[in-house]
Amino acid sequence: MTIGRLLHVAARLAVILPLVVACASTPDRPKTSGVVFTHPIEKARQGALDALVVLGFDVKKQDPTYIEGFRPRKVGLLVGSGGETVGVWLEPAGAEQTRVRVDTAKSFVGIVGQKNWDAEVLGQMEKTLGKPQ
Amino acid sequence: MRIVWSFPMWRLLILAVAFLAGCASTQSRYVLLGVTYPPLPEGAEVDIVRDGLPDRPFDRVSRLDVHLERTHFIGSDLEDALPELRRQARLSGAEAIIEIQEQRSQVGETKIYHVTAVGIRYR
Questions:
Q1: Which of B6, B27, B109 sits opposite A58 (nearest CB)?
Q2: What is the dihedral of CA B91, B93, B97, B98, to 10 degrees?
């Protein structure tokens, strides 16, 4: 195969790949009990939004009890990154308490460079909201 | 062995642009903290207070976030983030930036740099 042929294949991939990687997975609401922060839901919601921004997620959905973010994909030399979708579920657990559940969905394409962000999201929320119960 | 260069130049260009465009990202935002001010004009001076707080009285106007990610093991620092940090400050009506907090991490060959700061307005 000539170098020209190799570059031809690479150019086709460069066109096709963005179409394929546009597909993203959807997070599933965890069946676990999650963690409880001693803050009303509005404050916990702001903490979740801040956490996603700090971790590099583009916030795609902002419902009163659900936030979803997507990490933009980056092309690497060997392994890229990004492509994960994180869902954060918020549920009042009392007047001043909010139960938080987090799930990361990895997409099929580029899964090697993707990671689970559940702990990082909760860790960032802890920085603004304090330790959960 | 003879190398055949039959590949048109414009295809190489598309390939290079697609590769470079996909290896870095910049995300930014501001969140107003209470009192609102009109945005400052583009190019307006924004002070960077790296240590401590200004001597003059001020109001906290906005929380500022700039997030940079680059692959190929190339890192970013505050100097890379400052233009976008200043832009977000101007949009939020802030005249200066204080309480700069930096965070660095890495995922594979992607280096992640995040800076959070507070935009202020002098009284």
A1: B27
A2: -130
Q: Is residue A17 part of a domain?
A: no
Instruction: Of A133, A80, A26, A69, give the one whose Cα is nearest residue B70.
Output: A80
Whether residue B18 lies within 8 A of chain A, CB to CB, comes out as yes
CATH number at residue A59: 3.30.310.80
A16 assigned to some structural domain: no
CATH of domain B24-122: 3.30.110
- Residues of chain B with C-beta less than 8 angstroms from the C-beta of A79: 108-109
The pTM (predicted TM-score) of the whole model is 0.80
Residue A129: its pLDDT value, please?
Answer: 96
A18 in contact with B, Cβ within 8 Å = yes
- Separation CA A127–CA A50 (nearest Å): 10
Residues of B in contact with A18 (CB under 8 A): 18
Instruction: With residue A18 as reference, give the H or E element that holds it.
Output: helix A3-21
Nearest-CB residue to A76 (from B15, B27, B108): B108
Distance CA(A111)–CA(A76), nearest Å, equals: 13
Task: List pLDDT tens digits, range B45-99.
Answer: 999 999 999 999 999 999 999 999 998 888 899 999 999 999 999 999 999 999 9
Counted domains in chain A: 1
Q: How many CB atoms lie within 10 A of CB A68?
A: 22
Query: B105 vs chain A: nearest CA distance in angstroms?
Result: 9
Q: Report the residue from B67, B71, B72 with minimal CB separation from A56.
A: B67
